[in-house]
Write a structure and sequence with these properties.
It is a single chain. This protein is 23% helix and 32% strand. The protein has an eight-stranded mixed sheet. Strands 19-22-23-24-26-25 form a six-stranded mixed sheet, with helices on both faces. The protein has a five-stranded antiparallel sheet with strand order 10-11-12-21-17, with no helix packed on it. Strand 25 and strand 26 (380-383) form a beta hairpin. The longest helix has 21 residues, at 476-496.
Length: 636
């Protein structure tokens, strides 16, 4: 299909004619959407396609981890040993490995952009590669490990080390503890950096504000804790018979096929000290296994209640039969917000499995504690204690939507938080409306309303494509990562149709399962799926801070009908949706197509066959118009 900007100007008009275009004052036009040199080189090399899909030479790095870790609640210390194998799937030999040591964010000398509690960071002892001790180099939150011999393509090498650190108190960025009773461990072990087929090694320092870019891996993790402590983790529990009571195992078997919520560990079991089996020397070892995930996290608490049910995820394995995944919730206070949390999680998993692609992992778990808001890890989300059911449903929906972005579609959150947070916020609004059965056509989604507040206050000051750690203003991070991208996607859906935009996002998610798409891949994939060149749209909203502002200009009624001038007083081009009302009460809709503004016009004139008594621009609030005070005219 021809790009929209090149279509005839009258193409999209409904029952009216465009009489004239005011071009005396030429408006600025969106730049061509630039593609980075690295991305263009990847397309030329065949690891990407210009249509935004993985190419025939595409590769994704991979690793495997075996970790034994003990959490000592009394001292808040984590003591671990790990063997990690890196698989070189690239076409080039490697002479070094790069890892993240994100716990070093908490050292006194760390460079960071958020306040933290100061600790000693992570201690790494005795690094061994392929059986040979090596001298690793540590620079803040990064570690370089030289290889004794070059690692050839399709080769693999094992790295062994020991590590320890003290868990920070309180709500540390995305992990931490509450006293000595509730712990949540995120980014807690030395982890390989991503090596992708666009930029090579990507090992930016962890500064605290932006989130993560992580490679896919298999994990076998053994967690040692005092008996009676429950553990919720990424992966499937491998030794349930060693740590869970018979009653809990029977309840879990029931929950595996149940749509209703089943209590696994309730008030009575906690009061009797029967949350787990008795351990050896007062300790239990919980063994988990996870396949093809980008991280491993776990939480632990002796006072959690544990509920479970299951969710239908569609035909995940292609055998024609519907598949299920377990849904778990762990929480301390059975209030009105937490009691239905399994239902909230079940609704999210089932709907996103239908709207995007089937949920690929064996469980989806929601854990209460540490944070006031929420944070996502593979199969596992950390949620704060919300006061009302709507807030809890919304938070759970948002965090579990992250199982698709970035857990399944592994974008670089550090540089481009919008690529997952914005898409997740878009789907959160759809999930809220569906769960609470609200009509989305009655008013603009909350992201569009919030965008209006920010833009009207002059707070849309930086482009979305700016690296998230390089933003000038602190409030920009949340606005540019969450609110604005969700609002711009909602606007696109309200223009082109929600079904079409969802289908395009489904194509994108399906194509980039377990891979690392760039912003260029996202834009190109959406263009391909929507069947039109929307580079002007991506360029306008992602590379500038331009705003949209349509206004009703002169209205003239005469013997032969009416003429209505629509002015474009902003810089962001977008179709203008116009509704007129006639004296007999009937209405007529018209549209000034975006090609009018992309042609350089600043105003357009519509004609109607009879006199009008009212003119309204965007009556259904489908656009991000920043000044609605000039969107309506009424005859005197």
């Amino acid at each position: 299909m021809a790009p929209l900007a090149r279509r005839p100007a009258a193409f999209a008009l409904l029952a009216c004619a465009l009489l004239s275009l005011e071009t005396a004052a030429q408006r600025p036009l969106p730049h061509p959407l630039e593609r980075s040199r690295d991305w263009q080189a990847a397309v030329a090399a065949g690891t990407r396609t210009a249509a935004g899909k993985p190419g025939p030479q595409h590769w994704t790095d991979f690793a495997s981890y075996q970790i034994d870790v003990e959490l000592v609640p009394g001292s808040a210390e984590v003591i671990g040993r790990q063997r990690a194998t890196y698989h070189n799937r690239s076409p080039e030999p490697l002479r070094e490995l790069l890892l993240h040591l994100r716990q070093n964010l908490y050292t006194a000398t760390a460079v960071r952009n958020v306040p933290v509690q100061i600790t000693a960071g992570i201690a790494v002892d005795r690094v061994v590669v392929a059986g040979q001790p090596v001298e690793a180099s540590i620079d803040g939150t990064r570690m370089l490990v030289p290889l004794p011999a070059a690692l050839p393509p399709d080769g693999k090498v094992e790295l062994a080390l020991e590590f320890s650190f003290v868990v920070p108190e309180g709500e540390a960025p995305r992990m931490g503890r509450e006293g000595r009773e509730l712990f949540f461990l995120g980014y807690w072990y030395p982890q390989f950096a991503v090596r992708d087929c666009v930029r090579g090694w990507v090992v930016e320092p962890y500064l605290g504000e932006s989130e993560f870019y992580m490679p896919y891996a298999d994990y076998e993790v053994a967690v040692t804790l005092p008996q009676a402590w429950l553990v919720a983790a990424t992966g499937t529990l491998q030794n349930a018979g060693d740590v869970l009571t018979d009653a809990s195992r029977e309840a879990l078997a029931k929950a595996a096929t149940a749509s209703e919520t089943v209590s696994i560990v309730g008030k009575r079991a906690l009061e009797r000290g029967e949350a787990t089996r008795a351990g050896t020397d007062g300790k239990l070892v919980w063994r988990f296994q996870a396949k093809n995930v980008r991280d491993f996290a776990f939480g632990a608490c002796p006072t959690w209640r544990w509920d479970a049910s299951s969710a239908l995820v569609g035909d995940r394995d292609g055998d024609g039969a519907p598949d299920r995944c377990l849904v778990h919730t762990f929480y301390r206070r059975p209030n009105a917000a937490w009691r239905p949390s399994c239902k909230f999680a079940q609704h999210t998993i089932e709907h996103l499995s239908q709207w995007l692609t089937p949920y690929p992992w064996p469980h989806a778990t929601v854990v209460e504690g540490i944070l006031g808001g929420g944070m996502e890890y593979p199969m596992l989300t950390l949620c704060g204690d919300q006061r009302v059911a709507f807030g809890q449903q919304s938070l759970i929906a948002h965090e579990l939507a992250h199982m698709w972005f970035p857990m399944l579609v592994g974008n670089d959150e550090t540089a481009f938080g919008w690529q997952d947070e914005g898409l997740v916020d878009f789907y959160t609004e759809l999930l809220e409306s569906d769960y609470w059965q609200r009509d989305r056509t009655k008013k603009a989604p909350s992201s569009m309303q919030q965008y209006g507040f920010y833009a009207a206050a002059g707070l849309d000051r930086e482009p979305m494509l700016r690296h998230a750690d390089h933003l000038q203003f602190r409030e920009s991070y949340g606005f540019l990562s969450y609110t604005k991208p969700a609002a711009v996607l909602q606007q696109l859906a309200r223009w082109l149709g929600e079904d079409k935009v969802q289908a395009a996002l489904r194509d994108y998610a399906t194509a980039w399962r377990f891979a690392h798409p760039t912003p260029e891949d996202f834009f190109a994939s959406m263009n391909q799926s929507l069947g039109q060149d929307l580079d002007w749209y991506w360029s306008t909203w992602w590379t500038t801070t331009w705003t949209l502002d349509h206004a009703v200009g002169e209205v003239q009624n005469g013997e032969n009908g009416a003429t209505v001038v629509i002015r474009d007083e902003g810089r962001a081009p977008h179709p203008a949706f116009v509704r007129v009302r006639f004296a007999d009460g009937t209405t007529q809709d018209a549209e000034v197509p975006v090609g009018t503004w992309l042609g350089g016009a600043t105003s357009a004139t519509l004609t109607f066959g009879k006199a009008v008594v009212e003119v309204t621009i965007d009556p259904e609030q489908r656009t991000l118009d920043v000044d609605r005070g000039d969107n309506r005219w009424v005859a005197k």
